[in-house]
Specification:
Number of domains: 1
Protein name: Nucleolus and neural progenitor protein-like N-terminal domain-containing protein
Pfam families: NEPRO_N
Oligomer: single chain
Number of helices: 4
Mean pLDDT: 86
Helix content: 55-70%
């Protein structure tokens, strides 16, 4: 997964010009995206706290533990944490939500009714990015399991 996400140029069409049959689906999807964004915020806060602890462990123990297999697994988990941190999941989800509103809308104004439909290419690129983030989360969880299994 590339470190920087560069979606295609955002091209919006007004909701009134779009296909009316997708309005209900889009509305429910945006509600789900809003809930996911809030939940992701709390998960990211917990992850940042874990990263802070992990960085402290690395600072204290890197020289003495470097050659061990458990340390290498912990180092791999640390790299995956940083990759996940660089994705800026909450900002990405908010940017995706902002694509359904006119230019100049802020995150605080996202409680208003959506008025625009982003282009298919933009939405497709964002969904591909979300899939890659989900795969990265799966890798982080398996790395955590490997490190924790080693500790027990």
């Amino acid at each position: 997964m590339s470190r920087q996400f560069c979606p295609p140029k955002l091209v919006q069409t007004p909701k009134s010009e779009g296909d009316g049959s997708i309005n209900d689906t889009t509305h429910s999807s945006l509600k789900a995206l809003r809930r996911a964004s809030k939940q992701a915020g709390s998960v990211v806060n917990v992850m940042n706290e874990d990263m802070r602890i992990l960085e402290r462990i690395f600072y204290k123990s890197n020289n003495s533990q470097r050659p061990t297999m458990a340390w290498k697994k912990l180092k791999h988990m640390r790299r995956l944490y940083w990759r996940l941190h660089e994705c800026e999941l909450v900002n990405f989800l908010d940017t995706l939500r902002l694509a359904f509103y006119p230019a100049g809308t802020t995150v605080k104004q996202l409680k208003l009714a959506w008025t625009h439909i982003p282009s298919f290419s933009y939405t497709e690129a964002c969904l591909k990015r979300l899939i890659l983030i989900c795969l990265l989360v799966t890798k982080v969880r398996s790395a955590e399991s490997a490190v924790l299994a080693r500790r027990v």
